[in-house]
Amino acid sequence: MDGRNQRSVVQIAAAIGRSRGEKTTGVARAMIVGIPNSGKSSIVNALLRRAAAKTEARAGVTKHLQWFRLEGNVELMDTPGILPTRIPSAGAQWKLAICGAVPHERYDAQEVAAAFHRWLLVRTPRSKVPDLHAFATARGFVRRGGELDYHNAAHSYIRAFNEGAFGRISLEAPDDTEAA
Ligand SMILES: Nc1nc2c(ncn2[C@@H]2O[C@H](COP(=O)(O)OP(=O)(O)O)[C@@H](O)[C@H]2O)c(=O)[nH]1
Ligand SMILES: [Mg+2]
């Protein structure tokens, strides 16, 4: 589903309803849990049909637990994203970073962009997705003196990935060994 689309999230409302079974009295409580920037607050908003929970394309926007009242006596809690304090696998580190799940002060954007592109070329050797150098050149990330501005280009590169500018790319499938 698309969390930004109200019609798309009706499946969730239906599932909450089903989980209540025959019970018609009392309040049912549900919570929405996931890694940062995975679309939790957007789903809450779509279920509420209004922009009640703050959403933004970066990690750490939802800082408190928030309860929202839905139709049918359901209370829904939006939560801040959760991540393990230490992410041991280097592969998991750059994947979480490029998905916007990690605050940007906690990673090196140039390394993340490079790791992503190396991974992409192994997987799809003929991929047309630019590497950081090509991206910086094409988008005019140039400093005075003509040198490329890799620092700002790398943050823009990660945003471009997030916005889907490089197409629909799945970084992991549920049965990948690295995903464990
Ligand atoms: N492409 C796409 N983007 C989404 C979807 N759901 C949310 N987003 C975007 O992802 C970003 C993070 O969403 P948000 O709801 O704040 O995530 P949260 O941090 O998990 O609460 C925002 O820019 C949303 O517009 C989705 O289903 N598809
Ligand atoms: Mg949120």
Give the SSE string.
HEHEEHHHH
Largest sheet: 3 strands, mixed
Which structural class do the helices and strands define? mainly alpha
How does the overall form come out from the CA principal axes?
elongated
Number of domains: 2
The assigned CATH architecture of the largest domain is Orthogonal Bundle
* Number of helical elements: 6
Percent helix, as a range, is 25-40%
The beta-strand count equals 3
Distance separating the two termini? 24 Å
Overall description:
It is a single chain. With 180 residues, this protein is mainly α. The chain folds into two domains: 10-78, P-loop containing nucleotide triphosphate hydrolases (Rossmann fold); 90-179, Orthogonal Bundle (Conserved Hypothetical Protein Ylqf, Chain: A, domain 2). 36% of the residues lie in helices and 8% in strands. The chain has six helices and three strands, in the order αβαββαααα. The protein has helices at residues 10-20, 40-48, 90-98, 109-123, 132-138, 150-162, and strands spanning 28-32, 66-70, 74-78. A three-stranded mixed sheet has the order 1-3-2, covered by helices on one side. A hairpin with a 3-residue loop joins strand 2 and strand 3. Helix 3 crosses helix 4, helix 4 packs across helix 6 and helix 5 (132-138) crosses helix 6. The longest helix has 15 residues, at 109-123. The protein is elongated. The two termini are 24 Å apart. The structure holds guanosine-5'-diphosphate and magnesium ion.
